[in-house]
Amino acid sequence: GRKIVTVNVSDLAAMGAETIGIIVSMGLPRNMLLDDFDDMVDGILDSCTKYGMALIGGDTNESKELTLCGTCLGIVKKENVLMKSGARHGDIVAVTGPIGLAAAGFEALLHPVHNFDDLDNNIKEKVIKHALEPEARLKEGIIFAKSGSVSSATDITDGLLSELGEIIDANQGNIGIILNQEELPIPKEVFEIAKISSHNPIEMATTYGEDFELLLTVPPSLFNDLNSEVTLYKIGLVDSSGKIKMIDKAGNTNIITPRGYEHLK
Question: Which of 4, 29, 58, 205 is most deeply packed, by most CB within 10 A?
Answer without folding.
Answer: 205
